[in-house]
Amino acid sequence: MQALAAELGISRATLYRWTGPREQLLADVLWSLSDEIFEQAKADHPEHTGPERLLAIFRQHVGALVAARPLHVFLEQETHAALRILTSPDGGVQPRTVWKLAELYREEQQADAFEPKADINTLAYAVVRITEGFIYNDAIATVELGLERAASVVALLLD
Length: 159
What we know:
The structure is a single chain. By secondary structure, the chain is mainly α. It has a single domain (22-158), classed as Tetracycline Repressor, domain 2 (Orthogonal Bundle). The protein has helices spanning 2-8, 12-19, 22-43, 50-67, 69-77, 79-87, 94-110, 120-135, 147-158, and strands spanning 136-137, 142-143. A two-stranded antiparallel ribbon has the order 1-2. A hairpin with a 4-residue loop joins strand 1 (136-137) and strand 2. Helix 4 (50-67) runs antiparallel to helix 9. The longest helix has 22 residues, at 22-43.
């Protein structure tokens, strides 16, 4: 935070007033990047509908996150903070991801292209938690390449 404040030419106190604590800033940055990737994935699949669209967006979004070298570095260098920020209900990323996914499911449901077999919020939460389980390996603090394994389970939930 000190280096960032210096680069911006402001005091640390001003930076903290603008951004909140360091973990909040990191959560906001990570969420912003993830959300941008998610929106691009939505835009890239207008030809699909229903579960096919949902799974195509999932694969593209999660695939881009898994491929992101900065995410690997963050997980390697700051394992506990990274996992807390990314996967905790209080971490700043997971609740927004669940909300965003539920919003997408509602869009497809309202278009009569998707009939969820569970409450949409619960379904979105389950998909996020399953994805975290396949993608983040907290035992060795690396990102596993478990995208297709996660996608196969998510496909079962969306079908």
